[in-house]
């Protein structure tokens, strides 16, 4: 058999720089594209050839597989003679197969698939050492050489994280409009007391909205607001976004304050563990305002702490609207002990029927969006946040007679007065649920969804909630209505007079000024706010500081020969001269148009040429999110299933997994 020379994927690239730790920069020989990666992790090079140069990739695979095909042909002859020998024995002994080397394209793709599984499902890296997992790999591809845990943890996953950082920095270099979000997760695990997540929301030049987690940093010891701000500034500087953020979404907090997500009292978040594993805090029936662990969104009411937080950020800070909305619901529920006890009884009935009633019967009640039933003894997927739990409760009340027939003990069934109280609760909180669904959308179902909801929804939602509460009567539970009203006035009502929210809502083409009860006053607020932001913004260079005198329209290019008057084209009608509109003129024309259901970013992409000044402000205002971030949901998920003290994952590995999971779409879609 003729010898086949060793083939390397790097043969198709020109290496221009090689740094420490095996990091290399190279250019594709076919198209010149710059590729950065580690020499030990070549998936970037293989992926580039496969996506951009299929012929070169096919040639690489053909040359790589030539020697292996000869060996496999010899193996087929041996298998004919040994057809009665057990398959497992042949494969476990090698069976004449040649194992892939680490740079083989098939080896690289399988290793990448394993890494994607670990990241997407937040699996501990130690899974690659499990005997059952290795036996599965041996059965599916006996030529694959399983990578050791140390390699995956110290080289493969960090290499993907490095790729994500490079891609993010390159994308942000040319961005003109961006906002930032801060998320803090306190977990009190050994030396690690929490994690800080910094997310960037930015618009590309073609009006496409993207979000990327810039960093997930471990926090050690007892940390303070100044420590968090210092880490935040360092992240911004390293990614080139210092001073460029239009707004920072960061709820005010004190260093010792954390708030758990809101759940209805008594309702389980997930089925009780059956593997002997302890139930983690927050997964039982506890909806008390326990502040031991969770995503730190603070909502500190101390004016001094809030002022220092805003001053430390250096730019305008805004509260996360979805968290404020959730906090209003929490405070409303806690204002009524009567509601808490009644909900606890309803939760006992719910937990009983989901464990005792066959799923085919429960599906008649709980089938629907977000309410699909799981297996036997498994609660619906809906029991994961307060809004979804309210939907379950409403279904429960609507089907109470049917559930009484198929269930057992009557003492668990809520009585008539309790049903009236629960119906009053669901009716009162229904608009809050609608607002939550608008803001959160399908993010709860897919934690990696790159879905952006801007703060333009906040002001109409607050107006709707105030109107609903003013028209609602709760004779059986007046304290609930009072608690909700007071919380809405304290936490949400200030946005009604905030020029930023007024601007964002008006620049949303589905609203404009249709919500306003005083259009003239709001129009004046708009003009002042738009003038401030249009003067401060620059469409030229994100890092360029422009002085007021430099805010002049661009100089027009050379005129076409057709624009010069001549007898030859005298029959062509003269075009009217166009004059640049002022900000007030653009706003007047914009508001005269009828509102449209067109998505805001699509609208401004189409209308930017007609309203350039308004579009420049809209581009910035619409980057501010009203919803929570992807990393916030990942923090919650990690808190339930990957807490480092359980031994399932190391803290140093957890931050890498969180970073890669939050940027999964950036890397692998």
Describe the 3D structure.
By secondary structure, the chain is α+β, with helices and mostly antiparallel strands. It contains 24 helices and 9 strands. The chain has helices at 43-52, 54-81, 87-92, 105-120, 131-140, 149-173, 225-238, 303-313, 321-334, 337-356, 359-366, 386-398, 400-406, 416-440, 458-471, 478-491, 499-506, 519-536, 583-592, 600-607, 612-621, 630-641, 651-662, 664-668; strands at 13-18, 23-28, 34-38, 177-189, 192-203, 209-220, 248-249, 294-296, 317-318. The strands form 2 sheets. Strands 4, 5, 6, 7, 8 and 9 form a 6-stranded mixed β-sheet that branches. Strand 2 (23-28) and strand 3 (34-38) form a beta hairpin. The longest helix is centred in the first third of the chain and has 28 residues, at 54-81. The protein is globular, with a radius of gyration of 30 Å. The model is unreliable at 83-91, 269-305, 372-382 and 538-556 (pLDDT under 50).
Task: Label the structural class.
Answer: alpha+beta
**Total of DSSP H or I helical runs spanning 4+ residues:** 24
Average pLDDT, rounded to a whole number, is 77
> How many DSSP-defined strands?
9
Shape: globular
Give the CA-CA distance, first to last residue. 42 Å
| Low confidence ranges | 83-91, 269-305, 372-382, 538-556
The helicity comes to 40-55%
Largest sheet: 6 strands, mixed
Radius of gyration: 30 Å
Strand content range: 5-15%
GO molecular function: DNA binding; protein dimerization activity; zinc ion binding
Region (Disordered): 274-308, 532-562
Domain BED-type: 27-54
Biased composition (Polar residues): 533-550
């Amino acid at each position: 058999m003729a010898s086949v020379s060793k083939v390397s994927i790097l043969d198709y690239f020109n290496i221009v720089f090689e740094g420490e730790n095996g990091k290399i920069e190279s250019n594709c020989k076919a198209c010149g594209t710059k590729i950065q990666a580690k020499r030990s992790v070549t998936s970037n090079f293989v992926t580039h050839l496969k996506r951009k140069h299929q012929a070169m990739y096919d040639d690489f695979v053909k040359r790589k597989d030539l020697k292996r095909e000869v060996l496999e042909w010899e193996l087929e002859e041996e298998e004919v003679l040994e057809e009665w020998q057990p398959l497992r024995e042949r494969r476990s002994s090698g069976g004449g197969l040649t194992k892939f080397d680490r740079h083989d394209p098939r080896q690289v793709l399988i290793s990448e698939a394993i890494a994607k599984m670990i990241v997407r499902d937040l699996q501990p890296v130690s899974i690659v050492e499990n005997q059952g997992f290795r036996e599965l790999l041996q059965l599916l591809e006996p030529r694959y050489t399983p990578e050791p845990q140390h390699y995956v943890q110290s080289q493969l996953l960090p290499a993907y994280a490095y790729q994500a950082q490079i891609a993010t920095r390159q994308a942000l270099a040319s961005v003109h409009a961006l906002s930032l979000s801060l998320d803090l997760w306190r977990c009190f695990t050994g030396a690690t007391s929490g994690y800080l997540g910094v997310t960037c929301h930015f618009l590309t030049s073609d009006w496409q909205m993207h979000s990327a987690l810039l960093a997930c940093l471990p926090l050690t010891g007892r940390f303070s607001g100044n420590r968090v701000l210092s880490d935040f500034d360092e992240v911004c500087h390293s990614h080139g976004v210092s001073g460029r953020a239009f707004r920072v979404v960061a709820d005010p907090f004190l260093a010792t304050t954390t708030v758990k997500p809101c759940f209805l009292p008594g309702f389980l978040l997930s089925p009780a563990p059956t593997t002997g594993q302890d139930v983690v805090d927050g997964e039982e029936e506890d909806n008390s305002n326990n502040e031991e662990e969770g995503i730190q969104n603070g909502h500190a009411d101390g004016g001094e702490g809030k002022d220092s937080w805003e001053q430390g950020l250096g730019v305008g800070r805004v509260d996360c609207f979805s968290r404020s909305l959730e906090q209003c619901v929490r405070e409303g529920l806690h204002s009524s002990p009567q509601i808490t006890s009644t909900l606890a009884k309803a939760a006992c009935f719910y937990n009983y029927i989901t464990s005792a009633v066959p799923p085919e019967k429960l599906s008649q009640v709980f089938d629907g969006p977000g309410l699909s039933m799981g297996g036997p003894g498994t609660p619906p997927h809906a029991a994961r946040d307060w809004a979804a739990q309210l939907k379950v409760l409403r279904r429960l009340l609507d089907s109470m007679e049917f559930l009484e027939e198929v269930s057992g003990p009557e003492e668990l069934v809520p009585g008539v007065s309790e049903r009236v109280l629960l119906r009053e609760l669901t009716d009162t909180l229904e608009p809050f649920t609608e607002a939550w669904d608008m803001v959160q959308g399908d993010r709860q179902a897919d934690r990696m969804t790159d879905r952006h909801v801007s703060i333009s929804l906040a002001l109409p939602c607050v107006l709707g909630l105030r109107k609903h509460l003013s028209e609602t009567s709760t004779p059986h539970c007046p304290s609930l209505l009072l608690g909700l009203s007071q919380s809405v006035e304290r936490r949400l009502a200030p946005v009604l007079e905030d020029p930023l929210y007024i601007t964002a809502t008006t620049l949303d083409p589905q609203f404009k000024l249709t919500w306003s009860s005083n259009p003239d006053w709001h129009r004046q607020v708009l003009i002042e706010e738009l003038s401030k932001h249009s003067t401060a913004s620059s469409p030229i260079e994100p890092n360029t500081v422009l002085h007021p005198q430099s805010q002049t329209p661009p100089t027009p290019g050379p005129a076409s020969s057709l624009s010069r008057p001549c007898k030859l084209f005298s029959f062509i009608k003269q075009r009217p001269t166009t004059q640049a509109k002022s900000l007030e003129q653009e706003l007047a024309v914009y508001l005269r148009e009828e509102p449209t259901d067109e998505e805001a970013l699509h609208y401004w992409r189409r209308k930017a040429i007609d309203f350039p000044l308004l579009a420049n402000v809209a581009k910035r205002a619409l980057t501010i999110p009203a919803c929570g971030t992807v990393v916030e949901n990942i923090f919650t998920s990690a808190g339930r299933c990957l807490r480092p003290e359980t031994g399932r994952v190391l803290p140093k590995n957890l931050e890498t997994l969180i970073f890669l999971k939050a940027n999964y779409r950036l890397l692998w879609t």
